[in-house]
Amino acid sequence: MASPRNPLHAADHSSATNAQAGYPSVFSFSTHHRVIGRQYFFLSLAAVLIGIVLSLLMRLHIVWPQAPLPFLGQIKPEQYLAYMTMHGTLMVFFVLSVAPQNAFGNLVLPEQIGARVMAFPRLNMLSFWTTLISFFVMVSALFVTGGGSMSGWTQYPPLSATISAGAGQGLGTDLWIVSIAIFCVASLMSAVNFITTILRGRAEGMSLMRMPLTVWSWFVTAMLTLLAFSVLLAAALLLFSDRHWGTSFYLPAGLVVNGAAMAGHSGGSPLLWQHLFWFFGHPEVYIAILPGMGVTSHMLSTFSRKPVYGYRSMVYSLLAIGVLGFMVWGHHMFVAGISPYAVMAFSTLTMVIAVPSSVKVINWLGTLRGGRIRFTIPLLFSVGFVSLFITGGLSGPILAQPAVDMYLHDTYFVVAHFHMIMGMAAVFAIFAATYFWFPLLFPDRIMNEQLGRAHFWFTFIGAYATFMPMHFLGLAGNPRQYSQIVGSAEYLQKLLPIHVFITISAFVLASAQLIFIYNLIYSALRGKFSGTNPWESTTLEWEQDRRQRIRVHHGPYEFGPREDSRRDYTVQSEPPYTYKS
Amino acid sequence: MVAATVYFFSRTWLPALATSSGGALDHQLTLNLILLGVVFCATQLALGLFVWKYRQRQVSLQVTRGGQPDARVELTWLTIAAALFLGLNIAGAAMQARVAETPLAEKPVIVEVTGVQFRWYFRQPGPDGRFGQTNPQLVDASEGNPLGIDRSNPASADDVVSSELVIPAGKTIEIRLHAQDVIHSFFVPSLRIKQDALPGQDIVIHLPPTETGTYDIACAQLCGMGHYQMNAKLKVVAEGQYRAWLRQFPPANVAQVGHPSTNKVAHR
Fold first, then answer.
1. How far off is chain A from B234, nearest CA to CA, in Å?
2. ipTM score
3. Domain A32-251+265-535 class, CATH top level
4. How far apart are CA A204 and CA A206, in angstroms?
5. pTM of the model as a whole
């Protein structure tokens, strides 16, 4: 907790306000958390653009496998799988793990708890540049001989462990493993920094239960990151060792790959990887979505001018989801060949996790109810988040039943489920955060409202039009990761029109992002000036005077008309005040 | 949007069922779609309603309504959510237990299923009821021995290897599933059955008694570039036809194994 000598609160005399701050450029080795936040933001922007282009190439290939494309010619099945692996990896690691946590966390977390700096600024800088190296290693795999890895972002061995199993399984897969190992190291460093900053850097009066829900969600996410990524790092090293140093962690005896018997391996189990991977992989889903939940709670409260409905239960449900998130990894393995008793346990625990998730939805609805809702762009995206979270969330309990999962596992139903909840919902939270904290991202500018509205509606409708029909493909038994429909099993042929519809919707959804990119560039250069605290928010990141020591007197979401002014909000650091009843 | 969703979900998307015992699963799935469909509609409509009803009409400093929930309200919601989700969980588990714990009426017909990039091979033990031993060193698809059956082993003489799964109608089938190279997944949509095939491990599953007809078998676990075209036919024929089919293979012959070239994937 804060003490007068806490270095994290040292008064900052160098920079007075945002506009005059003159932060170092994003191209410099800066230890300033706002600069690092921006660097992470641009990194995930680059990753998401590549990921979107890859997804469009995939959608084209699924429905028109023969079509020659400009520059690329005709896409081959192994290229499709390389694009798919790259799409999944970029989106999960470099977008969903980086943007909500590292970009926006760095941008506002220290100020929100009343600190001036992160606990370890140099480590923070190192985390970013390490992540950047990891990104370049990952993307370079697309350009090496054989192309990128084709074994999906889950990299199940033996496919990922045997070089002869396919075109991208040589250097492409090595680069994948190396990149992920580097990414793990960067994430661990960043998580330690977040946890320490939150535990040690809070200003006087900023008790845990006065922390904004964004901070709570970054805190829980950092804990998950610390525990989950260390396991993935170990698993990736073992996989590399199996590929090159003749070990047999994941490889059993008697493999015959590509017509040739593989000698020298015995005793390993492909299931070991699945256990290790999903022990990371399931918490990873929450690493992607928890900050989104925090952001959404924050926005809904700010723009309905009401306190968060059930702040305490929001905190407890975050913690419950975080803890339970480590106990449900087996639900990815119901048909993998694990014990039916384990299946039963994982199934029940998975259903239990739906309960705190429901609490969150109900509290979001409760926050909106009775408010005076300001229809800003961040609010629209936050309401979109809740809608997508409900839609994607409700298919979870269906998949959590082993008997039903036996049919739906590895079909498009699963693709629909995770794209709705961890893809689209999380991305909507990222959009909300971008529109909301834009004045901190690009000092004192706000984004254009008309463009923002157009962006929201095209994205919202595009998201539903793209991912909703995938449920029906799944119900019809269409397996995922098929590079094309023509030439696959007979019963799938009649589903081709739905695939065509999805491809068209995907293009609409992707085109809508051009509006966002244009708005981003336009508003960064020509946007209206925001002034101080443009959203009339209660939290401390809008606090401009950096020369005074901050003391917190209020909870994070004190909205309500005040007698002493024309305001309906109280900033956390204001002197004590009682409300009109 | 909500209406379109309800309409599309109420249509039947599932492939026609090939067995009577798969009905329980369809029933469970329908129950899920109805219950969660109601929750979906209710929450989405509430979201839309609240956002519309409580939009700020003019800038003013009215007092907002709807304060903090008391513990009783929260417990009520918690109980409803827990009852819904755990209820579905228990119903699903009970259904699965009923299917799994029904004792087999008779000795099942045994078939060994092997997944190989990018084909399925089906081996039946023949009249002696025993599978011949296999050896990875002997695997050679171009010589007609994709499973590496050891010809010196007497039990192997009458083994029948085929690239489509032919089984008698109305019988329980025991599948011994494994993979030769990478993980594959044995997926029979019409039976609502899916099970991963792992290298280095034999997994036993049972196919319920099935009606005559031809059904699709697909691979559901990413296994490489030919994953999409890794499929086979399940032919369920009358008992007599099944015996006749088995008899057409002379001993020590490996039947109907695809041409060696098809073991590699043609790109176009």
1. 12
2. 0.91
3. mainly alpha
4. 6
5. 0.92
